[in-house]
Amino acid sequence: DVQLQASGGGEVQPGGSLRLSCAASGFAFSDYTMSWFRQAPGEKPAWVSSIGRAGGAGIYTDSVKGRFTTSRDNAKNTLYLQMDSLKPEDTAAYYCNVGTYWGQGTQVTVSS
User: How far apart are CA 112 and CA 74, in angstroms?
Assistant: First the structure.
C-alpha cells in the first residue's frame, strides 16, 4: 500500500522557519514527481510545490516563491519542504502527494 507520512509541522512566529518531511513507502519513489499541498481552515486544498523524479529545482506557487524550497532524497524515499520567512497566511495543514495518493497532513501555524 502507498503510504505518505508528513511530519515536522508546528507553531512558529512570523519570519520563522520549519522543515517538513514526508516519508514515502509502497511505491517506487524515485519514479514519481512528488508534490506538496496545503489546506487552510475553510478552504480547498491548494498546490504549493512539485519536484521531478530526479530532484533538482522545484516549481512553486507564486505566494511561496523565494521562501520555500522543496527537495527529495531518493535513497531515503523522503520528500522535504524547507519553509523560511513564514507568514501567518502560510498557516495550514500540509500534505504530500503522489498521483491520487495523499498522506496524513502536518499542521503549520504561524502566529505571534
Answer: 36
What is the pLDDT at residue 49? 98
- 87 exposure class (CB count in 10 Å sphere: 0-12, 13-18, 19+): middle
Q: How confident is the model at residue 11 (pLDDT cuts 50, 70, 90)?
A: very high
Q: How many of the other CB atoms lie within 10 Å of CB of 89? A: 10
Which residues make Cβ contacts (< 8 Å) with residue 95, sequence separation at least 6? 4, 6, 36, 37, 38, 39, 45, 102, 103, 104, 105
Rounded distance between C-alpha atoms, residue 25 and residue 18, angstroms: 23
Distance between CA atoms of residues 76 and 15, nearest Å: 29
